[in-house]
Amino acid sequence: MIDQATTDAQGRIRRVALGDFVHRSALKFAERTAVVDGDTRMSYAELDARSSRLAHHLLASVGAGKQIGMLCQNSADMVVAYNGIHKAGCVWVPVNIRLDAGAIDYILRHAEVSAVVVDEALRAEPALAAVLEKLTVPLILTLSSADGPGDARVRTLAAAEAGQSSALPEVAIDSEQPALIMYTSGTTGNPKGAVHSHASVAAALMGNMVGFGITERDVFSGVLPLYHCAQHCLAATVHIAGGCVVVLRGFVPDEVRASMRKERYTGFTGLPMMYAALLADPAFRADSMRLAIYAMAPIPKPLIQQIAERMTPNVMLATGQTEMYPATMSFRPLEHPGLDANYWGASLAHNETAVMDDEGHLLGEGQPGEIVHRGANAMLGYFKDPQATAAAQRFGWHHTGDLGQWGPGGQLMFLDRKKDMIKTGGENVASVKVESVLLAHPGVAGVGVIGLPHPRWAEAVCAFVVKKPGADVDVAALEAHCRAQLGDYEVPKLIHFVDALPATSTGKVQKHRLRQQFEALAQKAWGDGT
């Protein structure tokens, strides 16, 4: 008979635990810089020690296995805190700080958090302060002043770490136990919490390290929010490899260009509009770069060419979902010049991808259907929502809600979100196809294409366009541009210029908000049914 001590020891030998990775990197690269945050340069030894001290505090104050909320903007303190949560065997619950107070309150309560790590400045905001006050759980303040606050349930991060051991805690962690709950941005109803295990996140990180070729020599950007799966998985991947992550509070082109030059970035991950803004300076070059990753939206070929000429020819699209910890697929546009900007490419090693019809049959090349994935990076399920979990995981695959089809050479082409496919006059129109055509016009900076109710066509293709500064472009010019490249039924029946598009914190256009804002305008435009 094997005793419990032997069982525990065997579990430690075999476990996959996210908190172990930074510890192991510190054993190999103790003095190497792990995080740059302004003037702060944190070594692996310091990151390991500080995150272990926080873990011991959490174990003493709330215990292992508890959900710990987080309301932080990017900082070295934030990196310390989420690694400490993982080392304690607790469950990290990062929250999008751009959400309204009601949504933040819902997430923290739904997740049943036992404590919240929050930036001191965010806690000072009245609406958020009211949410946190009602929760009555311990608060740990990051980016905080040296003096501790007077409230007994509130500590600074420094105070939480003070007097604690810097050794990796001896806590039982099962590879399949929850490591994080990340809430998806809800377009209808409340957001859902995708639960990931230590093993599912680790699988994505290992696959990313191989797929992106990340090593201890890399210096990667941290400009996207760390509470989002895309930036967290990239930062955590770099820290597995022993590289450096430069965290920034937000995207300010001049600041990012200066940081890239100073820190000699080898990798940058950003939204298409970020690349356009960086390259708007004709003098800007990034000669140290070896990899430029873009996400969330296609990039027009002229911009791809600029990235290749002035940053690096190694340009890659990476895709993924909160539910399938990213990345799931990658595409190198310069290696496939004959394929358009909406291709997603091929799967990374840790998962596989298929196209499926509504009955669960897998489809071949040229047959449109829903994009589905399966692999070690799949979520455990939605927190406290077995029905939504079953719907998302039917037929043994994760259902993305995206439509696609296989193209030449095993490359996957994204067609549209299921809910964003426009049905007009008996024809299906992919909104992303129309968007890619409009984005290729030299006067267009951004575009959102949606279908709005039409008395004759059921839905009409409508485009909402942001002009580039100083661009001389009008509706007639864009209509002519579209007619030259699209079928008649695909050409927008309404083109409307806007100052900005409603978007999430990661730059995704919120099409439900466009529909809410402009349905009345559209009805007025074609009141006679033409």
TrEMBL record:
<protein>
    <submittedName>
        <fullName>Class I adenylate-forming enzyme family protein</fullName>
    </submittedName>
</protein>
<feature type="domain" description="AMP-dependent synthetase/ligase">
    <location>
        <begin position="23"/>
        <end position="383"/>
    </location>
</feature>
<feature type="domain" description="AMP-binding enzyme C-terminal">
    <location>
        <begin position="433"/>
        <end position="508"/>
    </location>
</feature>
<dbReference type="InterPro" id="IPR025110">
    <property type="entry name" value="AMP-bd_C"/>
</dbReference>
<dbReference type="Pfam" id="PF13193">
    <property type="entry name" value="AMP-binding_C"/>
</dbReference>
<dbReference type="InterPro" id="IPR050237">
    <property type="entry name" value="ATP-dep_AMP-bd_enzyme"/>
</dbReference>
<dbReference type="InterPro" id="IPR020845">
    <property type="entry name" value="AMP-binding_CS"/>
</dbReference>
<dbReference type="Pfam" id="PF00501">
    <property type="entry name" value="AMP-binding"/>
</dbReference>
<dbReference type="InterPro" id="IPR045851">
    <property type="entry name" value="AMP-bd_C_sf"/>
</dbReference>
<dbReference type="InterPro" id="IPR042099">
    <property type="entry name" value="ANL_N_sf"/>
</dbReference>
<dbReference type="InterPro" id="IPR000873">
    <property type="entry name" value="AMP-dep_synth/lig_dom"/>
</dbReference>
